[in-house]
Amino acid sequence: MGGAVEYSTEQAQRKQSPILANGLAILLVSRLLSAWYNIIHDCDEVYNYWEPLHYIMYGYGMQTWEYSAAFALRSWWYIVLHGMIGWPLSLVFGKVGVFYGVRAVLAVLSALAEWTLCSAVATRYHPHVAKLYLVFSVFSSGMFVSSSAFLPSSVAMVAMTLGAAGVLQRNDTLVIWSAVVGCTWGWIVAALAFIPYAIWVLVSSEHMFRSWRTLFMAAMAACVPLVACDRWYYGSWKASLINFLEYNVKGGGKSDLYGIEPATYYLRNGLNQLQTVLPLALMFPLMMGWKPRSHSMPRTTALFTVLAPAFVWLAAISYLPHKEERFLYVVYPLLLLAAAAVTVQLKDFFNAVFPAWLVRRLVAFGVLSTCVLGISRTCALTQHYGAQMSLYRMLPAGINQQARVCVGTEWYRFPSSFFLPGPEYRLQFVRSGFDGLLPRPFEETKDGTMAAPQQFNDMNRSEPDNYWDSADGCDYFVTSSTHHDDATRHMIDGAVLDQEKWKVRASVPMVDTAASPALFRALYIPFLSEKRNTW
User: What is the pLDDT at residue 325?
Assistant: First the structure.
């Protein structure tokens, strides 16, 4: 299964660069920037996680069918864990402060996990690979997006990062705990990615009884609070993990009701978020067995077990018909590490063919280009698609009456009730072109989480009771608009909005993806993006 080449502490310290010496601080700054500037990329993050958290903290929010007691596909334990962060913060900060505070904690946990892996690579494989991994990770737009996301796939990503560090350190206890917690408290489907680590424990463990005991203890520690919490919130015994697997896996699953993507989906999205790192990472299997020319360079086979989950996971999720970008989060750190290892190996090979000074400059140019592309993509995401995070904060605070904030076609960009100024505001859906099942408000009663609303189904079938047919009862309406050459404004929700009765109170520019060139909307290019994109 491939071993590890261990550097002595003295060797590792001697080979450390300022980048590695200050790596944790660099990662913390990078991840906290993500917590502050990152947008919400997926409506699932809002309606399945931020809204239930808002509900248990403030008593109101939107509910999806997965949280109906009739289906119970989601565990409340995951929400309560974040509530343990949010409740103390709410004593000091307002709702928006709580939102960003929770994000900051998630970002710090990601940074700590990444630094653990970086340190393990530096001492157990090669410091140069560790340094490159750190650089790729800090500037990666994929890590910017995933490190502060309130998603089970991000939990699985942190667990996978710690598990990889455990394999390098030959610490099967860390590997077992990471896998169990990441799969039960995070995303149970990620168990597929942990299979290579499970095999590694079985093959390499010198104390198999101790490993099985660790597995039992970890499983009990993870499952008991989860089951107890679901019993409390759902009002009866529920097996949310099993329900989730049955719905998504049994008989082929029903996840394809929510969209089907081609086999190239992850290649396209991976290039968007990882840029040149992805093709480098995919070269790793081709480098297996490559004999280094430098005596100080270990073989890439030493990383085989560590990186195997990335390729198992890519194969598994590419096979599934329903694909989403957040599924890739699980193995982002491993792909970055694979790219770093391949880059160092290529440098070692080309040093024997070309002058060393030329190779150094080419590698430096490649790494710099990767960093610039990562920054450009990150800036594009925040500058081109961050309008909603700003717009809802412009709602007036301190009103003395109930106010309905309505959304039609823009329902999927709602950033959560944390951005509604106070309890006077409520979100309301209005009929649009969407023909799937929309969320509805949680019942604002003591036992609201135990309810099983009749307006929910598990077939993604639209329910008219979950939206209004017109905007007549709305106090505010959030929509998007485009401007034609004649400077007239075209409201996307014009079918339900009488534009003569509505006045624009606030607006924020956002890229019109349908009318903007792919290159300039995917990457932020100073001066050119503003001119070439349609807003």
Answer: 94
